[in-house]
Amino acid sequence: MSRIHLLPEILASQVAAGEVVERPASVVKELVENSIDAGARQIEVMICRGGISLVRVIDNGCGMERDDALLSLERHATSKIRTAADLAAIATLGFRGEALPSIASVSRFRLTTREAGAAAGTEILVAGGRIETVRDVGEASGTQVEVRSLFYNLPARRKFLRSENTESRNTEHQLHLQATGHPEIAFVFVRDERVVFQLPAASNLRDRIRDLHGNELVERLLEVESPNENAKIQISGLIGQAGVSRQTRAQQLTFVNGRAIESPLLTAALREGYHTALMKGQFPVTFLFLTLDPAAVDVNVHPAKREVRFRDPVAVREMVVESIGRTLAGGRREWQQQFRAPPLPVTNPPSVSAFPDRNLPHVIAGVDDLGHSSIARPIVSRGREESHKQTNVRPADGAKANHQHFEIIGVLNKLYVLMENADGLVLVDQHAAHERILFEQLRRRMEEQGVPSQRLLLPQTFDLAPRDAEWVERNLATLQKMGIGIEAFGPNTFKIDSLPTFLSVSDPIRFMREVIDGLKSASNSSSALRLGEDMIAKTVCRHAVKANDPLRYLEIEKLIRDLLECDLPYCCPHGRPTMIQISLGELEKKFGRKV
Ligand code: ADP
Ligand code: MG
């Protein structure tokens, strides 16, 4: 007797379901994708008990006639592709023709559907893959799918489900993805009879994000600047400005041609784009949309269509890195606008003597740049006494009419510079600010003339594993540009005789091994430059003004002015904020002047 046989249809569907239907959230994903493909403008999702006892998706899409409805439950039945050429350029969310039969094979399933003009709709009941009833019904046009008792006939799969809460949260996240990807569609999500969210159709992404996450987040998002209008890859969306980050990846959303995908490539590109604008271990907030020729992405690489393969991954990566970098730098302009003149010039400055000296935050005595000793004076009075001396900072674009003003009030706890601007109070962490300034100076120097380096007293040699050695060989020029005097010294052996001046490294070989370890994870030469940045970021900290380092007024003023001229003034090279704005509105709220 032959040992090989064809699987019965239902069993084959259950096998397919193993990949496609992992949990209630995957049911929701497949059903909502079908609704979107059907042109729905409104989608309602309801789950009970984590979706394990019920998932129901109702849409007002195109619906199906009876024959199509029956066919849709067959394996490999789809209206979305016909030929191999179609498969090479998918424009719909679905195309595998597997979801409905798979879901129906592992649940008690009910489909009702009606085309807009049709006299009657169709209802089909399925249990464990077997069609039990087909009849006419009078439903509204569109489609409604009910999935009850998921995995009731596969107890082993059921055991893998998590708590109802966890499953609900997975579904909610899934719906966030879909709702973000399609702001033009209205969504309702009901969990155990309670409305979790109700999103009206929105005319743009920003409104949708506001409805999902609230205004506070939206105000800290920047519109992504696509590097080039005519490029093959268009990038759009909203991303968190520097300093906005999360402890998880839950708000790091990426879409490729409207499809939410998980992509290590995009994750790495985002990380690189944010680079020093992100704290270690934190994730950026992104709602990023890539649009490219469907033929340039293969979406047929993952059964749940969660991943894609790019035909030109390097180009995608570079475009993303560039547009993120550009967007963050652009966000700086907007941010600088906040430093406008205070609404009213201070005509009657409060007299200094109104503040008893011991209460003054900081008293400075020192020697100025020319060597004159300056009078010990409380800087708290400075801005007030000489309010005409408000610091004017030239905006990056040189627009004269748009001078930005701030006024230094004083220093708190020998660390935080207090400033006033049009919006209220600004607190600057002088240490973080100085780090950012030094970082950008050194980086500019590195880019323009290479990093000045200093000879080691004794050149040192060290061995590397062959793979690392090969990498170093290929990147000797980059390393030298970073101020590292390194050359080959025999097979897999290298000699190093100088290091960047600004480094204070006690063990050059250990330092080199660290640098190379970092390089190993970076994949191209632009990353090598990033590594140079990393190197600088790690070391500027040691050189920057510390908390408790008293600064003179002029120094503070210069610090602030230099900070405002930085590319990314609002965070230090480690991603920590350099300044915090407390608006007059917030103060009014705190003092109960306004509710
Ligand atoms: P796929 O989406 O990959 O084509 P499915 O099994 O998910 O496969 O669906 C099979 C077919 O059923 C779809 O191609 C579509 O024509 C039809 N269909 C499924 N859901 C809907 C819906 N909500 N509205 C209209 N047609 C639908
Ligand atoms: Mg589908």
Written description of the protein model:
- This protein is of the alpha+beta class.
- It has 19 helices and 27 strands.
- A hairpin with a 2-residue loop joins strand 4 (121-127) and strand 5 (130-137).
- It is globular, with a radius of gyration of 31 Å.
- Bound molecules: adenosine-5'-diphosphate and magnesium ion.
Blueprint (SSEs and pairs):
Layout: H1 9-20, H2 24-37, E1 42-48, E2 54-59, H3 66-71, H4 84-87, H5 99-105, E3 108-114, E4 121-127, E5 130-137, E6 142-148, H6 155-158, H7 164-181, E7 186-191, E8 194-199, H8 205-213, H9 215-218, E9 221-223, E10 233-240, E11 245-246, E12 252-256, E13 259-260, H10 264-274, E14 283-284, E15 286-292, E16 297-298, E17 309-310, H11 313-336, E18 363-367, E19 373-378, H12 382-385, E20 391-393, E21 404-412, E22 416-421, E23 424-429, H13 430-449, E24 453-463, H14 466-474, H15 476-481, E25 485-488, E26 493-500, H16 508-521, H17 525-543, H18 553-564, E27 579-583, H19 584-590
Parallel strand pairs: 1-7, 12-15
Antiparallel strand pairs: 1-2, 2-6, 3-4, 3-6, 4-5, 7-8, 9-10, 10-15, 11-14, 12-13, 16-17, 18-19, 20-21, 21-22, 22-23, 23-27, 24-26, 25-26
Bound molecules: adenosine-5'-diphosphate and magnesium ion.
Adenosine-5'-diphosphate binds at residues 30, 34-35, 38, 59, 61-64, 72, 77-80, 94-100, 143.
